[in-house]
Each structure stands twice: as structure tokens, then as C-alpha cells.
Design goal:
The chain is built from no helices and eleven strands. By secondary structure, the protein is an all-beta fold. Strands 2, 4, 5, 6, 9, 10 and 11 form a seven-stranded mixed sheet that branches. Strands 1-3-8-7 form a four-stranded antiparallel sheet, with no helix packed on it.
Length: about 120
């Protein structure tokens, strides 16, 4: 099994910063992509940022210039530095890992989610 665990969420005032962390562990043979998604109440889950195995990154237009994704390969960890936070950033943030075990093809693994609330 592959485990994905996020941390770092919380309550922050508009304009503040948070740093989210996500660690992937377990029976991992290789990781293709690590990234972050978010979901606000009543809304669809949306892409925030991804970091691929060849170090390509992409960001949602709404967070470009404010959020930065980074990654460590050993251990398998991805970070999301969130600056200049806005109330619109309020959501549950989910870590996503596209990984292969020794016994299967690549698939998506999800963390449990961490709440980010931006409010004065």
C-alpha cells in the first residue's frame, strides 16, 4: 500500500502564508507526479499545482505568483508554499500522488485532506 499524509493547514488572515507538506510512503516503486488539489464546500475538486518526475511544474491560474510547489525525492515529499492568501483560497487541500508499486501500474493516491481557512 501507498500512504499519503498531508500537514500544515490551519487558519490564517488574508495576506498571510501557510506551508503545506505531503509525504508519500509505503510500497512505492516509482512516483510520476506529486501535487495538490483543493475542494471548497459545494465545489468540484480542482488542481492547484503539480510537480512531475522530470521536474515540470504547473499551477492553476488563480494561484500563479502566490503559491510555489517543491519536491524532495528521498524521502518522497512535496510542499506547497502559499503566500498572499485570499479568502477564495479557503478549501480542503488534498495531496495527490501518481505512483507505481512493484506489483501494479501507476495509479492515483490521495491524502486525507487538510483544511485551509483564510479569514480575518
Amino acid at each position: 500500500q501507498v500512504q499519503v499524509v498531508e500537514s500544515g493547514g490551519g487558519l490564517v488572515q488574508p495576506g498571510g502564508s501557510l506551508r503545506l507538506s505531503c509525504a508519500a510512503s509505503g510500497s512505492i516503486f516509482s512516483i510520476n507526479t506529486m501535487g495538490w488539489y483543493r475542494q471548497a464546500p459545494g465545489k468540484e475538486r480542482e488542481l492547484v499545482a503539480t510537480f512531475t518526475s522530470d521536474s515540470n511544474t504547473n499551477y492553476a491560474d488563480s494561484v500563479k505568483g502566490r503559491f510555489t510547489i517543491s519536491r524532495d525525492n528521498a524521502p518522497n515529499t512535496v510542499y506547497l508554499q502559499m503566500n498572499s492568501l485570499k479568502p477564495e483560497d479557503t478549501a480542503v487541500y488534498y495531496c495527490n500522488v501518481v505512483a507505481s508499486t512493484e506489483w501494479g501500474i501507476p495509479r492515483h493516491y490521495w491524502g486525507q485532506g487538510t483544511q485551509v481557512t483564510v479569514s480575518s
